[in-house]
Design brief:
The chain is mainly alpha-helical. It folds into 2 domains: about 110 residues, no CATH class; about 90 residues. Helix content is about 65%, strand content about 0%. It is built from 14 helices and no strands. α8 runs antiparallel to α9 and α11 packs across α12. It is globular, with a radius of gyration of 19 Å.
Length: about 230
């Protein structure tokens, strides 16, 4: 039995059919027959175990995977990698095969924490992609690492320049700018005032910011006046 066959067998042993039905509803872009139904804590635990195995590269090399849960496991394994160069290499191979928001959003590579100076260059490259979930991943990393201590106004401009007709890209853009309004209001609000985003993303940003407990009531009242009709 190959490494990949063994991993697939283990995933089926962890199957939860109720969770499979739940996941099918959450991920409409994924064919339900490709969802095994493994809960996230079990996947994380398996990923940590497999990441220590010298033959795990056989599984990582086997793209595309057949099952949604294999993709999620793949993403969790990448997130455990310690080397920055290795992590980016594996991401560049894996990102083009991601076909849903959930697999995209679960990845939080540990190697990024101490390499924010290098990461921004790769984020620029990812958000310039023509692949929906590569853009979304890049945007999420920009939101995760560059709206706090490493913030610079140029990162808002980077995000504002992204243009896409894809729902899952524009939803991430709205999430990004709503988070920016919560964390860097003075710099971010001008992008709403000047209508720098497309109408749908603009209004969704305002909606998400108004729902946030991190945005003040005064700021929410002002944002409501900026909604586009």
């Amino acid at each position: 039995m190959t490494c990949s066959e063994e991993i697939r067998d283990r995933l089926f042993c962890l199957q939860d059919k109720k969770y499979k039905a739940f996941q099918s509803k959450l991920t409409p872009t994924v064919a339900s027959e490709t969802i095994i139904g493994v809960r996230t804590p079990a996947l994380r635990k398996l990923a940590r175990e497999l990441a220590k195995r010298p033959d795990v590269h056989y599984f990582l090399d086997e793209l595309p995977h057949k099952y949604y849960d294999e993709n999620n496991l793949h993403g969790f394994i990448i997130s455990t990698l310690k080397g920055y160069i290795e992590t980016v290499r594996e991401l560049d191979r894996f990102l083009p095969y991601i076909d849903n928001w959930a697999t995209c959003d679960l990845m939080r590579p540990k190697a990024f924490d101490k390499n924010t100076d290098r990461l921004i260059g790769d984020i620029r490259r990812w958000i310039s992609s023509d692949h929906t979930y590569t853009i979304r991943f890049g945007m999420e990393m920009l939101m995760t690492f560059y709206l706090d201590e490493f913030f610079s106004p140029e990162y808002l401009e980077m995000a504002a320049e992204v243009r896409s007709g894809e729902y899952y890209v524009n939803m991430m853009l709205a999430w990004f700018f709503a988070t920016a309004l919560a964390k860097q209001y003075a710099a971010a609000v001008s992008y709403i005032e000047q209508e720098r985003l497309d109408k749908w993303t603009h209004n969704k940003t305002i909606q998400k910011a108004i729902e946030s407990f991190r945005v003040s009531n005064e700021q929410k009242a002002y944002l409501r006046t900026l909604k586009r009709v």
